[in-house]
Amino acid sequence: MKLSHTPVDTIEMFNRDIFVKRDDLLHPEFSGNKARKFAYFLEHDFPGVCKLIGYGSPQANSLYSMSALAKLKGWSLEFYVDHIASHIKKNPSGNYGAALANGARVISLDTLDNSEGRDTYTYIQEVVQPHEANVVFVPEGGRCEYAEFGVSKLAEEIVQWADENELHHLVVFLPSGTGTTALYINKYFVEQGISIRVLTCAAVGGSAYLTQQFTELSDNPKHHPEIVTLEKKYHFGKLYPEFYEMWKTLSLSGIAFELLYDPLGWLALEHYLNLSAEDVPILYLHQGGLLGNETMLPRYTRKYGDEMVNCSN
Ligand SMILES: *Cc1c(COP(=O)(O)O)cnc(C)c1O
Questions:
Q1: Is the same domain home to 26 and 127?
Q2: What range(s) does the Tryptophan synthase beta chain-like PALP domain occupy (predicted)?
Q3: Exposure of 296 in the CB half-sphere (CA atoms within 13 A)
C-alpha cells in the first residue's frame, strides 16, 4: 500500500484565496501527518516483528494512527499512558475509542504495581524493552528520523504541484507540535535548492521550545522553518473562544479542520498575512486529526454553546 498524492483545494479566508493540501484525505484509516511520519514502517518489511510500542496521551492522534499502522501491518500495539481519565475510560470515543476498536492495548501506568514513579518513556526503556526483542518502538508523536522518509515524499509532492501550477514563490504553512513535519519538509526544500518557504507556529510549549525541538532533529539552522509567534500565549489542549470562532469560520469553507492545532495555525497565518507586505501564494497543510474532534467539539459546545455551528463534522 502506498500513501501519496493528496489533492489541493482552494478556500477563501482573510479575503484571499488559500490553497489547502488535503492530507486529511490520504487514506480512510491512516491519514494526516502521522501517516506521513509512519510511512517508513508501512513501506518497509520488518522480518520477525509482531509488535509496535508507543506512548503518549490516550487522546493523541498518534495513538489512533499507530493503531491503524499496527492493523495494516498485522502487528499488535501496546501504547503506554500515564493515566486515563475516568470519563474517557467509561465512554471511549475519538482517537482512544477508535484505537481500541483497532485492537490497541492502551496500558495505563497508574494501574501497574511496578511503575515505581517512572514516566512512560522510562518505563518502556527500563521495564518493557529488555524483555522484547522483536518490536518496533516509536517515540512520542513520531518524533524520530524515520519520519523523514514519508515527510520528504510529502515535500516532493508539494514541489511537483507548485511546478505544475507555475507557483515560483510559495509559502507552506502548518502548525507544529514536535515540529518534525515542518522541519523535514523545510529540510527537503533546502537540500533540493527549492525556494518554497516553510512557516509554522508552536502549538506545544512556545517558540523557544519548538526551536529546541528543531535542533534535536537537525543542528543546521538553515533546516529550521520560520516560526510565527503570536503575542498571546496559548496552552495546548485548552479551549479558547477565538479558536472556536476560527474553527467555525473555517467550517464554512466546506473543509473540516481539527480543533487542537488548526485554530492556532490559522490565527498565526492571519497574523503573518497582516504583517507581511508581499502577496505570496499560501499553501496550508491540512494534517488530519479529525477523529479528535469527537472529544474536542463536545468540550467546546459545553463551554461556549453550539448555536453557531454550521458544520459539525
Ligand atoms: C501530530 C499533529 C501535528 C503536529 O505534528 P508535528 O510533526 O509533531 O509538528 C499537527 N497537526 C495535527 C492534526 C497532528 O495530528
A1: no
A2: 14-227
A3: 26
